[in-house]
Amino acid sequence: MQETSRSLTVIMIRSFFLCAILASGCATYKTPALQRPTWEDTSAILQNIQGETKGLSLQQLRDILISNNSRLSTFRANVEMTLTTPDVKGPIRCTGVILYQRPGSFRVMGSKFAKTLFDMSSDGNQFWLYIPSENTVYTGTSNTFHRIEALGLNIFPGDMASLFNYREILEGEKPTMETWPAYWLVHMLEVNKEEINLKGNLLIDRVNAEVFRYELFNPDGSVRLQAVFTDYTTQNECRIPQRIDVRWPAYNNTTLGITFSHITVNGTLDPKLFTLSIPKGAEIITLK
Fold this sequence. Notes:
Blueprint: H1 2-16, H2 43-46, H3 58-70, E1 74-84, E2 92-101, E3 105-112, E4 115-122, E5 126-131, E6 136-141, E7 146-148, E8 153-155, H4 158-164, H5 166-172, E9 174-179, E10 183-191, E11 196-205, E12 211-217, E13 223-235, E14 238-248, E15 254-265, E16 283-286
Parallel strand pairs: 6-16
Antiparallel strand pairs: 1-2, 1-15, 2-3, 3-4, 4-5, 5-6, 7-8, 9-10, 10-11, 11-12, 12-13, 13-14, 14-15
């Protein structure tokens, strides 16, 4: 039973901590939650968006996205997570809580059968991940890829921050834009003296100018993750997706569906909530 619990913990953390996801905006949307994510065909999402399409330049679109995102200061919600992976038979479900505070502080807690599977916090520079079943705390820099050999985990806490904050994404990279009949496709490029690398893509509908799909790429050009945002709702003048679906192609197309409920936007959050309390006797491992 202990080994089963440990395996469940490892699977959930491996999938969840590649990113956690949130997008925001401010407009009118009529998108029902999708039962299954649409990874290759955007028409299933776009056909539910009602209204007249806009004609915007890249600069105008950047200004809108940055302005909308800047309205989001804090975020708290309960979450239900559903994982499908070749490692286990059938979907795995757990519940949890997510907290976010601009510019890069977050905390995520996941549980199953009233037992905590993981507890993770980050201040944008340093992260801490506590695994109760191992009584171990892992820590390291947030913007570096980490491998936890003992648990067989690959984590990149920077994915979390990048998906919370479109402003940093759009201001930090050199974007180019393609205009399609129903959406804009913004490519985020990293340009240096010798080469140009594709860092990520944002797909934004042309009715509400809201992101409905997001992609991040590895240095070799392969897709690291894909995220789809649906079922938007207005909370305190901000547009928040109530459903997020994520896929990691490099991990046998493992998918994670996250549904938000009891959402609170721009409420007061005690800074202490973002500090992980290390239990007495826990082993602390620093990841390089």
